[in-house]
Each structure stands twice: as structure tokens, then as C-alpha cells.
Amino acid sequence: MKIRTRYAPSPTGRMHVGNLRTALYAYLISKHEGGDFLLRIEDTDQERLVEGAVDLINRTLADTGLIPDESPDKPGECGPYVQSERVNSGVYMQYAKQLVDEGKAYYCFCTKERLESLKTTVNGEEIMHYDKHCLGLSKEEIEENLKAGKPYVIRQNNPTEGTTTFHDELYGDVTVDNSELDDMVLIKSDGFPTYNFANVIDDHLMGITHVVRGNEYLSSSPKYNRLYDAFGWEIPKYVHCPLITDENHKKLSKRSGHSSFEDLIDQGFVAEAVVNFVALLGWSPDDNEEIMSLSDLIRKFDYTRISKSPAVFDMGKLRWMNGEYIKAMDFDRFYERALPFIQETIKKPLDLKHIANMLKTRIEIFPDIPDMISFFEEVPEYDTALYVNKKSKTNLENSLELLKDVLPLLKEQEDYSNDALFALLSEYGTKKEFKTGFVMWPIRIALSGRQMTPAGATEIMEVLGKEESIKRIEAGIAKLQG
């Protein structure tokens, strides 16, 4: 049987990292076996819809490479692929009424006030367990209410005795007492199906074989089984993924600032790194490899290796991984992404491509760039303590002497290419029996006013040019003398 998976988001805004992982795992499960991956838009909760969110979903899937085989824009034989359009076809009401006719569901005409009266507080949480009041209505009473246009919902008729067992591919069998199963609403008063009911109908009609979702749905899953059993349909395989937490082991929230794919892209991460990182939030390959392309993930993905433990969103690891992707990036693509950050910082007519080349192996995210290169525009105020370096054995006194010593050499030098400058200063160091680090450290501090720079002293001078380099070294001498 061909594997068919789906990603079925509600168009309510940016794609949360948890939803991206759901889409990614569903995609990998199908593609690992040469199957189909579907996109279905679940817009039955009309109050939560956000304008433009469907376009955002399509763009995110395109940016991450998770291209559906069937979708609203690429329909197959089991459309429509938007739930509101399926509502108009009457398919959900048709199946709900089938259950009503078979005694497996019933009309409920209870008012909002009556439902409110059924609420109780358990462990500080307000819950409502429906009491099957309308199950006892006679056929005549139901027809009379319908003719009168009385608002209604259709509820699932769950048993109150015995147990229901649900099987998950990761968690195994989950058994619940039927007394805990509420008679959940299948069709709402506006005629739209609930999320749970539409899910089951659509997954069956679309031939979905594997359903991937967060483990917060695990406890409610027995209700799905009862619906499948009520229709006599084959139950798909369910894969419930672990919770994603922040570094403090709290649920990843929108307030964290990195809860969605778009948040991360806005913060300077590249899509390929985000996909790679998200794949490892609860899963690892048997070879423990960490840097993997999407094709690598397809080849290696085995959903039985998904962990049941919560996955920690480690921002430090994502930054490292992003840096690895930037290092491997084609220079032209890197330059295109880096240029706005460089131009935001540097207004002088310097060789921006040269500066970009310095940065490529040194940044983790693109917003790191301005702080790293701001000294090219202007030397910041700095403490002379920067000239002290135990490793190269430089201090304030010998730094001053060295700068005064090399200044005439640099003034006489015409070739300000990196190689020529390095040769000049290396020759100077050899004559004086100075190590390279001892020579270069005070020069680099005078040029940049920074302890850390994306390049060495001679490469910085090549970009700054002779006039600016000499001006900065003279300023460094004056600062040390002062």
C-alpha cells in the first residue's frame, strides 16, 4: 500500500516550529517510502482565520522544500483540499447524519446556559462533561425542534462503560475508561464540522495512512478510534511527537521570539539550517550525523527513532548549525543575503565583497554582521587595556614601541595588498626576533579598537587603504602616549 501523509494546518498566522516539525516528519515519512505528501487547509474555525495565512503556509512549505504532491493549488483525485469547500459539498453533514441514523450520534439542542451549568472545576481547571440529556429526545421531539429552526449540534454517542484502546506507533497502546470520553460535538451550530470530526472524515477519504501530530492530542485520540470503528473504517497509523520546550524546559511560546519559522528567518537564519535543526527536535539518525540536507533526511528518516521525551529548542545549537550552513553557502548567495547588513553599517567606499568574504566563515547569523564590521566605518572608543595580551606577550609599553617602529615602514610601503603587507611585517618581525602575533596584535588593535575582528591586521589594512590605516595607527600611538 502506498504511504500517504498530510499536513493539515489551520490558517491562523505564522507557522509554529512545532507545526513545521509535524509537516517535516509527515513529509519525510512519505518520501522515505516513495509515497505522497498532501496539504489540506483546515479552516473550519472561522473565527480564528487570519487573512493571508494560506499564502504564508504555501510560502513556508516552498522555502523549506516540503513540496506537496496534492494541495489546493495542485489538486488530485480526492479534493477539495480546503475544508470550508468540503463543507459546501455537504460531505460532513452526510456522514454525521449516517451516524445519527445508526444511533452512534445524536442531535443536541441544549442552550448555552444549560451547557454552562454543567461545568465543574477539576484541579483548578474548568471542564464540561456533557450528560447525554438530548440523547433521550424522541424522534418526534427532534423533528419538531428541527422544523422550528432551533439551533443544534450533532454529538458523538460514546459509551459510558468499558474501555477504549488506542495504538500509537511510539507510545504503544493507550487505554482509557469510556466514562472519561465526552460526547464530543461533530457538527457545530453553524453547520461546520469540528476539527476532530473533519479530521477523521478527510483522512479517510484522502487515503491517509500515517497521521503525524503533537503528543498533546494523545489523550483525546481514543475518540478518533471510536469514530473509525463507528464507520467500519481502517484506522491509520498515528505518530505523536514529543513536546518542544525552550532551554528552561517550558513549552515553546510565541513570547520566546523564535517560536515560528518566519521568526527565525527574520532573525537571520537560513531555511536549510532551520529544517535540519527542526528534524533533530526529537529524532536522530542511527549514524548520529547532525548536518543533513533534505535529501539526506529523506534517505535516513526512520520514524521509529522519534523520542518520547520532550525536545529542547537549543538556540546555541541552532546558531552553530546555521553557521555551518553559511560556511558551505555559495559566495554569491551569501553576498546577496549579507549585503543589506553590510550596507547598513558601512557608508565609506570600501570593498564590500572583500569584507563579505572575511565574514563568511565567522558569523552564525546575518544580524551578527553589523557589530562585527562597524570598526571599518569608524574606530570605536576603546580602552588601552586591549593592547595587553598575555598569549603574544604584548603590553602597553611594547605595543607603543612597536607601533612607532612600524609606522615609517607602513608609510614607505606602496603595495597595500594583504600579501605584501604581511611579507613586510613578517620581515620586520624576523629581524627583531619577534613572533608574528607579537607584531600583529597592537597593529590590529590600533586599526579596529576591537579584541575580536573578522580578519587579521594586514587584511584589515588592505580594505582600509594606506591613508586610513596610517591615520588609525597614529591615533593608536597618541592614545598610548596619552
Could you name the key traits of this structure?
single chain; 482 residues; mainly alpha; two-stranded parallel sheet; 45% helix
Strand order of the largest sheet: 3-6-9
Please summarize the sheet with the most strands: 3 strands, antiparallel
Please tally the β strands and state the result: 13
The portion of residues forming beta strands comes to 5-15%
**Shape annotation:** elongated
Helix fraction by DSSP (H/I, runs of at least 4): 40-55%
* Number of helices, where a helix is a run of at least 4 consecutive DSSP H or I residues: 20
Radius of gyration: 32 Å
Determine the mean pLDDT: 94
Uncertain residue ranges: none
N- to C-terminal distance: 81 Å
> Which structural class fits the helix and strand makeup?
mainly alpha
Describe the structure.
Helices cover 45% and strands 11% of the residues. Helix 13 packs across helix 14 (352-359) and helix 18 packs parallel to helix 19 (457-464). It is elongated and about 105 Å long. The strands form 6 sheets. The protein has a 3-stranded antiparallel β-sheet with strand order 3-6-9. Strands 1-2 form a two-stranded parallel ribbon. A two-stranded antiparallel sheet has the order 4-5. It contains 20 helices and 13 strands. By secondary structure, the chain is mostly helical. Strand 7 (163-168) and strand 8 (172-177) form a beta hairpin. The termini are far apart. The mean pLDDT is 94. It has helices at 17-32, 53-64, 83-88, 91-101, 112-117, 139-147, 195-205, 221-231, 261-266, 271-279, 294-300, 315-328, 331-345, 352-359, 369-377, 396-412, 418-432, 436-448, 457-464, 466-481, and strands at 4-7, 36-39, 105-108, 119-122, 125-128, 153-156, 163-168, 172-177, 185-187, 210-214, 237-241, 244-245, 311-312.
